[in-house]
TrEMBL record:
PANTHER family assigned: ABASIC SITE PROCESSING PROTEIN HMCES (PTHR13604:SF0), DC12-RELATED (PTHR13604)
Gene Ontology molecular functions: lyase activity; peptidase activity; single-stranded DNA binding
Domain of life: Bacteria
Enzyme Commission no: 3.4.-.-
Gene3D superfamilies in alphabetical order: SOS response associated peptidase-like
Hydrolase is among the record's keywords: yes
Descriptive protein name: Abasic site processing protein
Single GO biological process annotation from the record: proteolysis
Annotated source species: Candidatus Lachnoclostridium pullistercoris
UniProt keyword list: Covalent protein-DNA linkage, DNA damage, DNA-binding, Hydrolase, Lyase, Protease
């Protein structure tokens, strides 16, 4: 599951591109963890808008067992692309409350608990598909990251990876509900992996 990602100034530049009203924070590189706030792009009044949201749905949020990936605190932090339209916790959000979570890269751990970082070959930011729902505690929205089967870049480390969309797909994901199923089946492109002092590029 995707349980940590990181952002940097390149993410600020992308957010400004998606939402011209966004004011870059200029924080440099920072890690993002479940239960903490991060920036996501959602739809407000028919336009893309950057908002601060908390990562993770409390168990039972929006009804019943979500069949997503939970962390140690019992937060559901991921939803599987293969079943997100079927599960009670996720299906309404997948149909009408989709979002994008920008990142410079994300981390995964293998069975030996060794951490690997993944990022685009050209170092441009990632756009991870997600869904968001109102926080039952009244603190704005919460989001989960949608995951899919790992591509050849990630598979040596983990069997799952975030559903990473291309720049040309972000408007479709946010605004076109009729094409959601097609995007949920999208296979993300190759990524670069950095693990300890080893760096390698794996392509199809």
């Amino acid at each position: 599951m995707c349980s940590r990602f990181y952002v940097d100034d390149s993410v600020d530049a992308l957010l400004k591109e998606l939402d011209p009203g966004y004011v870059p924070a200029g924080r440099g590189r920072e890690d993002r963890f479940p239960s903490r706030f991060s920036l996501a792009v959602c739809v407000r009044d028919g336009h893309a808008a950057v908002e601060k949201m908390k990562w993770g749905f409390p168990r039972g949020m929006s009804g019943g067992n979500g069949h997503g990936s939970e962390n140690r605190d019992g937060l559901v932090i991921n939803a599987r692309a293969e079943t997100v339209l079927e599960r009670p916790m996720f299906r309404d959000g997948a149909r009408s409350r989709r979002c994008l979570i920008p990142a410079a890269g994300f981390y995964e751990w293998n069975r030996e608990k060794e951490k690997a970082a993944f990022y685009r070959l050209d170092r441009t930011p990632l756009l991870m598909a997600g869904i968001c729902l109102p926080d039952p505690e009244g603190e704005g929205d919460r989001f989960v990251i949608i995951t899919t089967g790992a591509n050849r870049s990630v598979a040596p480390v983990h069997e799952r990876m975030p559903l990473i969309l291309e720049r040309g797909q972000w408007k479709t994901w946010l605004f076109d509900g009729e094409k959601v199923e097609n995007l949920l089946a999208f296979q993300p492109g190759p990524l670069e992996r950095f693990q300890e002092y080893e760096q390698q590029t794996l392509v199809f």
